[in-house]
């Protein structure tokens, strides 16, 4: 299954919980790992990268895919 | 223009900025007022209440419309 990585601006556990919740609502997302200190979000998902990116964008957080 | 009010769980300014950003991306939203301390989000918008609620839900924050 593809794994995608993103840098996401998150400043508290409320921020990271929100990103986690939003991603887990997306069908095809199997696993979400978030490192708040490193501003890192790692997603295992059977959907295209763009779909995952769009879901994170809709949380209102600044997000950058890591190549 | 209709005005909608919501209680939204926000714990830092990163949280409230994210909600603000997400709402301002929604077409038809004219004004967003957020009170972080009161967990209050007030939206002036020319779109149905459900559309605004859906947009807030997609931020991953817990949200309750205020009647």
Task: Characterise this structure.
- Two copies of one chain form a homodimer.
- Chain A has helices at residues 13-24, 49-57; strands at 3-8, 29-35, 40-45, 63-65.
- With 67 residues, chain A is of the alpha+beta class.
- Chain A has a four-stranded antiparallel β-sheet, with helices on one face.
- In chain A, a hairpin with a 4-residue loop joins β2 and β3.
- The longest helix of chain A is centred in the N-terminal third of the chain and has 12 residues, at 13-24.
- Chain A starts with a strand and ends with a strand.
- At the A-B interface, α1 of A face α1 of B.
- Chains A, B: Belongs to the ATX1 family.
- Chains A, B: Pfam families: HMA.
- Chains A, B: Residues 1-64 form the HMA domain.
- Chains A, B: It comes from Umbelopsis vinacea.
Helices, strands, pairings?
The structure is a homodimer of 67-residue chains.
Chain A: E1 3-8, H1 13-24, E2 29-35, E3 40-45, H2 49-57, E4 63-65
Antiparallel strand pairs in A: 1-3, 1-4, 2-3
| H/E element order of chain A | EHEEHE
How much of the sequence of chain A is in beta strands? 25-35%
Structural class determined from secondary elements of chain A:
alpha+beta
Q: What is the typical, i.e. mean, pLDDT of chain A?
A: 97
Main beta sheet of chain A: strand number and arrangement? 4 strands, antiparallel
Q: What's the N-to-C terminus distance of chain A?
A: 17 Å
Molecular shape of chain A: globular
* Quaternary structure annotation: homodimer
**Major sheet strand order of chain A:** 2-3-1-4
List low-pLDDT spans of chain A. Answer: none
Task: Output the number of helix runs of chain A.
Answer: 2
Largest binding interface between chains: A-B, 20 and 20 residues
Keywords (chains A, B): Chaperone, Copper, Copper transport, Ion transport, Metal-binding, Transport
Protein name (chains A, B): HMA domain-containing protein
Family (chains A, B): Belongs to the ATX1 family.
Organism (chains A, B): Umbelopsis vinacea
């Amino acid at each position: 299954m593809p794994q995608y990585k993103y840098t996401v601006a998150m400043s508290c556990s409320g921020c990271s919980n929100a990103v986690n919740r939003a991603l887990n609502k997306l069908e095809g997302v199997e696993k979400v790992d978030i490192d708040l200190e490193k501003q890192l979000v790692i997603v295992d998902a059977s959907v295209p990268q763009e779909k995952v990116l769009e879901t994170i964008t809709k949380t209102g957080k600044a997000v950058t895919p890591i190549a």
